[in-house]
TrEMBL record:
SMART domains for this protein: CBS, ParB
Spans traversing the lipid bilayer: none
Record protein name field: CBS/parB domain-containing protein
Organism: Halodesulfurarchaeum formicicum
InterPro entries assigned to the protein according to its UniProt record, in alphabetical order: CBS_dom, CBS_dom_sf, Diverse_CBS-Domain, ParB/Sulfiredoxin_sf, ParB_N, UCP004699_CBS/ParB
Keywords, in A-Z order: CBS domain
Residue intervals of the CBS domain: 22-80, 81-138
Length: 273
């Protein structure tokens, strides 16, 4: 088992690369298309506010909704597109791509290979997802090591899709205002996987109560989860707490809509002072 020091001291080769998180199926436009035609594509799309302009697979420019504003609908794109492009390489570290996105103020970077051919596109949402997926395994590893140390066991770790109906909550309340943020993340595929403990067949929800309740409210029945599998049924403290508070299913979790999240309240008090 890796020590915490070894986990923290990851080499740069272990860091996620753009090619791991970019979208490979990229919608493009050609330079001879008109402003009006591309504007209609943007209006009718839920995901696009601009397109790479290509000749075959070679990138010639990028056109955004801003580039099209107040332009004659019959104007060809090569007259309005941005030709000075900021692009990423597939082997670029995601953290470096994130810096470019944040500093440039753009939302998406075309990804090109050594020959200048378009191979994908990476967005600010992809960057967020890459960081979420790296943070969660660290959280799971810490919990797994803690359980192994306390109970003198050796646990396993799995990635599963779990049914929300099978989960036993270990937290009695969630906050309505925070659910809105979790719903936003779910809609955009940015929610962290849950962290679940399989205690002899009982699935205890260790982390992700707001995500689960937001999903339940949205009619989602299954979610992605990291599952720590114990070698047998163990008398866990969180299981005792759940029993004491009468928590058997997600229906037993109260949604508090008359109070703000404690951290938000604390921040507001500090601001007021």
């Amino acid at each position: 088992m890796d020590s915490p020091l070894e986990t923290d001291l990851e080499s740069s080769s272990d860091r996620p690369r753009v090619e791991e998180y970019m979208t490979q199926d990229v919608a493009t436009v050609s330079a001879d298309e008109t402003v009006g035609a591309v504007a209609r594509r943007i209006i009718e799309s839920e995901d696009h506010n601009g397109f790479p302009v290509t000749d075959g697979r070679r990138v010639e420019g990028f056109v955004s909704a801003r580039d099209l504003l107040l332009k004659d609908p019959d104007t060809p794109l090569f007259r309005v597109m941005s030709e000075e492009l900021i692009v990423a390489h597939p082997e670029m570290k995601v953290t470096d791509a994130a810096r470019v996105i944040l500093r440039s103020g753009i939302q998406k970077l075309p990804v090109v290979d050594d020959a200048g051919n378009l191979v994908g596109i990476i967005s600010n949402a992809d960057v967020i997802r890459s960081q979420i997926e790296r943070a969660t395994p660290e959280k799971v590893g810490k919990l797994k090591r803690t359980l192994e140390t306390i109970h003198d066991i050796e646990a396993a770790e799995e990635r599963r899709t779990v049914s929300l109906a099978d989960l036993t909550p270990t937290q009695s309340t969630v906050y309505a205002d925070e659910l809105e943020g979790r719903e936003y993340e779910l809609e955009r595929g940015l929610a962290e996987p849950l962290v679940v403990i399989d205690n002899g067949g009982d699935l205890l929800l260790a982390d992700g109560h707001h995500r689960v309740m937001a999903a339940r409210r949205a009619g989602i029945e299954e979610m992605d989860a990291y599952v720590i599998v114990l070698p047998g049924r163990i008398d866990l403290g969180m299981a005792r707490t759940a029993r004491k508070e009468g928590l058997e299913t997600l229906a037993d979790v109260d949604i508090v809509d008359y109070a703000r999240h404690p951290l938000v309240e604390a921040t507001e008090r500090l601001t007021d002072e």
